[in-house]
TrEMBL record:
It is found in: Membrane. Residues 91-227 form the Fatty acid hydroxylase domain. GO terms for molecular function: iron ion binding; oxidoreductase activity. The keyword Lyase does not apply. One of its GO terms (biological process) is lipid biosynthetic process. It holds the Pfam family FA_hydroxylase. This is Fatty acid hydroxylase domain-containing protein. The keyword Cell inner membrane does not apply. InterPro entries: Fatty_acid_hydroxylase, Sterol_Desaturase_Related. The chain crosses the membrane at residues 6-27, 48-72, 84-104, 137-154. It comes from the Bacteria. It comes from Pseudazoarcus pumilus. GO terms for cellular component: membrane. Keywords: Membrane, Transmembrane, Transmembrane helix.
Amino acid sequence: MLDWLLHHQALVLLIATFGGMLVLLVAETVWPRRPNAVFAPARLINNLALAGINFAAILALSGLIAGSAWMAPAMPSGGLLHGVHPLLSLAALLLALDGASYALHRLCHAVPQLWRVHAVHHLDIEVDATTSHRHHVLDAVLSAAVLAPVVAVLGPFPAVLFAAISLRLGFALVTHANLRLPERADRWLRRVVVTPDFHRLHHRSDARHTDSNFGAMFTLFDRLFGTASDAPYREHERCELGLQFLRRPADSRVDRLLLLPLRWPHPTRPDVAPHQPPVPRAAQGGAAHPQTTASP
């Protein structure tokens, strides 16, 4: 069974990605975090189209980008994780990939040229499972290219790498989902892992939140580097998502999103003020603690 999965991993990941989206879209109608979120078929089609384009691009480049964080081609296991127990190897690999993703994510927000590409992901005015793969194709390829050396140095066994990729894909879907978690469960889970509420703040149009909560799987790096933020639990239901510009439905057409880096309408980033610190975790009753990072 494992050999079959590794031999057909591209097909397995394709089915898991789009199948997972479908399952979560159904779940979002049963347990919505934002009950008033508007369902727009055109938005859904555009997001799925970008996901398909990105998957095809990474598949085409998988032979050139060895150890891509998306495709996991078979690799010789002679790196730092050679001989390490598979579970420990998986944990180390996930942590290393999340650290690299965190660093790249912050660069994409700080470097104007990278932001023009990454903004495609942030222009979605609602956030659900399909947003997880709403990326410019250059953004997807850059991520794969940055994570490939990490995998090459660590040299995990193919099965461990496949498991890591599957978990990262699953986390991306869930953390973008419009799913309601009980407040207590969310508070405890985010001590370690990224929850939908934790990541949704990153998609708010409020500049103080846009440049916070960069982690993909773990909240460790956000807490370590002071980029974790929080907001009152009920605020998620009514907060504005997306950016403060390009909010018309026509602005999220696939063709316009793909051309966005070349037709960027703003010489600077009017939506983000880098000098503003992230919003710390709110105290009970809505007042914020005077701290720079969120506390569980």
